[in-house]
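Progress note, sequence design subtask.
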């Protein structure tokens, strides 16, 4: 078996990834990406790569501050290209490294290289975490060269310009700068459109007071905006009264001290990841399933009064040490993985709303 849910299905000696194995999320597409002056170039370049196998934007390196739409664009490219029958893979830099280490320890690094060299469009997020990882840099450099020479496309996203990433080889920086290097930002116009979009997505009334409140209490960060909308959604229409009375939203969204039922946690996590609740009681190498189970276990420890052994029984786990491992895994991910941060935060807000 291999990590991260990578199915090894051969067709003409190529790895063909199922949609689940691409690590893509259907929620991200070009149609729901808000375009403005600060991200128009990145948007058009990303769309060109997705639909044009001869796109000159190779590699495409998108950088910008957290929450500026980089992940959305990479995922949109993946979803569009997958629909056009391209072999696509989205991964974070940390997952790429973790997988490489797995193959190294198993003495099968050639299988790792073979898989990545058979991708039509490779999407790597959070490339800034490549800093200081010498062996990962070597493997990425070789994979990059192979894909580029075979007219395959590579897209990178980073919080930093490649020249600002410390402890990275000059030859990799040169490769990053060899295609299109474009910065993406969210200006006030884009921010306003995102606020209205998120309000509608979460079924709230498009109220001018609500729009102004969100605008004044968030930075130009799409994740932060969505997070606040989720908090508002969790408290319902009473938020408008709070805004009129100038109350602090933190008072309305503070954590409920009441213990949550573990079955509720499992049900909500399963719904969030669009999987069967039965999957949480089984063991899978599939990344999506494994992540969902780790998060469910983590939240069960945080939001209930159950012991590790009791939690283990709810997830059909024999040893409480495995529960501790899941908790530590999510605790670590919360420090460096924005996707996990967003997922855990969103699920907790949904759980609060159920109380």
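Output:
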């Amino acid at each position: 078996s291999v990590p991260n849910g990578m199915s090894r299905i051969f067709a003409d000696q190529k790895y063909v990834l199922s949609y689940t194995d691409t690590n893509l999320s259907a929620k991200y597409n070009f149609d729901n990406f808000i375009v403005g002056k600060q991200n128009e170039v990145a948007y058009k370049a990303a769309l060109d790569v997705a639909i044009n196998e001869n796109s000159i934007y190779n590699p495409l390196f998108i950088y910008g501050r957290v929450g500026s739409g980089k992940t959305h664009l990479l995922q949109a490219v993946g979803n569009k290209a997958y629909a056009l029958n391209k072999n696509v893979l989205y991964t974070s830099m940390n997952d790429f490294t973790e997988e490489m280490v797995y193959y190294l320890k198993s003495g099968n690094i050639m299988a790792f290289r073979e898989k990545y060299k058979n991708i039509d469009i490779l999407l790597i997020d959070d490339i800034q975490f490549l800093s200081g990882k010498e062996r990962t840099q070597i493997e990425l450099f070789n994979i990059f060269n192979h894909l580029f020479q075979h007219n395959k496309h590579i897209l990178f996203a980073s919080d930093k310009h490649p020249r600002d990433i410390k402890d990275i080889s000059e030859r990799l920086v040169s490769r990053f700068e060899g295609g299109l290097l474009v910065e993406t930002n969210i200006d006030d116009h884009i921010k306003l459109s995102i606020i209205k979009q998120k309000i509608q997505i979460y079924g709230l009334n498009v109220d001018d007071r609500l729009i102004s409140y969100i605008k004044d209490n968030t930075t130009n960060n799409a994740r932060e905006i969505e997070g606040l909308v989720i908090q508002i959604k969790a408290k319902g229409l009473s938020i408008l009264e709070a805004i009129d009375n100038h109350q602090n939203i933190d008072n309305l969204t503070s954590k409920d001290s009441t213990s949550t039922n573990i079955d509720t946690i499992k049900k909500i996590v399963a719904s969030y990841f669009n999987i069967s609740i039965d999957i949480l009681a089984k063991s899978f190498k599939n990344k999506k399933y494994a992540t969902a189970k780790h998060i469910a276990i983590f939240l069960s420890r945080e939001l209930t009064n159950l012991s590790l052994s009791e939690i283990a029984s709810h997830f059909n786990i024999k040893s409480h040490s495995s529960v501790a491992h899941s908790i530590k895994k999510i605790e670590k991910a919360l420090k460096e993985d924005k996707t996990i941060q967003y997922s855990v935060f969103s699920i907790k807000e949904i759980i609060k709303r159920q109380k």
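The CA atoms of residues 96 and 156 lie 13 Å apart. Work on this subtask will continue into the next period as scheduled.
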